Amino acid sequence: MPEYHIVGKSKQRLEGFEKVTGELRFTDDLKFPGMLNAKVFRSTVPHGSVVQIETGEALQVPGVVAILTARDIPGRNGVGIIVKDEPVLIENRIRRIGDPLALVAAHSQAAADSAISKIRSEIKELAAVFTPKDALAESAPQLHEKGNMLFHRKIRKGNIEEALAKADVVIENTYETPFVEHAAMEPEASIACRDNDSITVWASTQNPHFDRGEVATVLGLDQNRVRIVQQATGGGFGGKLDISTQCHAALLAWYTRYPVKLVYTREESFIASGKRHPYVINYLTAADRKGKLLGIKAEIFADTGAYASYGPGVVTRAAVHATGPYHVPHVHVDAYAVYTNNPYCGAMRGFGVPQVGFAHETQMDILGEKLGLGPWEIRSMNFLSPGMTTATSQMLEQSVGMGETLERVKQRVTDKKC
């Protein structure tokens, strides 16, 4: 065995000492002279039209420095990792509970909270949709200009009808998976400081280069006038890839010329942050009497919520991985990302694959049971191996470790009689 510097060695994490001693500085630990506290005034209805936002009384609260609405945005009022469909501040159309309507900056958090309580909004509430099925109905309200269908990914390989004609057993079921909240220990947080015609944002983020572009565009600045400092991040798991506090803090700092800190409360983080996509999966598995897979047909509906975020990427991964680590000669998959009035959904560990994994592995268990085969037996005879093609017809020319890996797991479990 060759000697490696890292592999097989016990190494101290670079930030490990600072974390366990409490010396590591997160965004909320930073302080700047004259720093203001920020708060977001949010929608309490899932779907509606803004008639009026009245901030006059809120502006009279002692300590309040600024209140901003959509009309104060100097650049583009829209952000999004793939589709720029999420307003930084709502001008007219509310699409989810928690949509931001106004921003407050004040000399104390108490003053900011008081001002939020005094903002008055007149909203015309509209009919809402909360499932992909309802959103795709002919009578459904259309949440975006191009409709409620955000994205459709197709995978086709072979001929599924041929597989069904040859099959000795067909297993067909519907699976549902729920929303999942990232619940990072550190809530979303940013501090922004303006320096003449430039701005710096310290943020709890996984995506500083993306943040830079979005902040610049919202403020109407060239990117060379925007600096993003990625602070130590107390948990992300994909949930801090999207814009959260960055543009709001930057807008307030730009207008007030004070440093501005915006930190979500835990409740606010639950309301305003992205989630794991819930799926409804219609899944059909066709096999011969020995247990060899002949084909799969899957229809996957992903609820992307009010805004796109990573929806197109997530459903693409769902479609590509719908066959799991198995060789399937005939594949027919349709995966859809659908807008609803739910919280927006984006990246989360596994990026769209765990949900469909639940479906294809349950199918394998049911198939094995139907044929009198154990969980290991039904899987091992179907694992991908070199020389086979995936669902997207990619030829696997190098090693494929699935079979060997699970064989070793099986041996360990058998040896220990777990």
According to DSSP, the number of beta strands is 17
**Uncertain parts:** none
Proportion in β-strands: 25-35%
Please outline the major beta sheet: 7 strands, mixed
Q: How many domains comprise the coordinates?
A: 2
What is the subunit organization of this protein? single chain
CATH superfamily of the largest domain: Aldehyde oxidase/xanthine dehydrogenase, molybdopterin binding domain
The best one-word shape is globular
Which CATH class of the largest domain is shown? Answer: Alpha Beta
Q: Do you know the CATH topology of the largest domain?
A: Aldehyde Oxidoreductase, domain 4
CATH architecture descriptor of the largest domain: 2-Layer Sandwich
End-to-end C-alpha gap: 30 Å
Mean pLDDT across the residues is 97
Q: Radius of gyration over alpha carbons?
A: 25 Å
Q: From the helix content, strand content and strand pairing, which structural class follows?
A: alpha+beta
Task: Report helical residue fraction.
Answer: 25-40%
Order of helices and strands: HEEHEEEHEHEHEEEEHEHEHEEEHEHHH
**Order of strands in the sheet with most strands:** 3-5-1-13-10-11-12
Overview of the molecule:
By secondary structure, the chain is α+β, with helices and mostly antiparallel strands. It has helices at 16-21, 56-59, 109-118, 132-135, 160-166, 208-219, 246-256, 266-272, 311-320, 353-371, 375-380, 402-416, and strands at residues 36-42, 48-54, 64-68, 93-94, 100-106, 120-125, 149-157, 169-177, 180-181, 189-195, 198-203, 226-230, 260-263, 275-276, 279-287, 293-305, 330-339. A 7-stranded mixed β-sheet has the order 3-5-1-13-10-11-12, with helices on both faces. Strand 15 and strand 16 (293-305) form a beta hairpin. The relative contact order is 0.16.
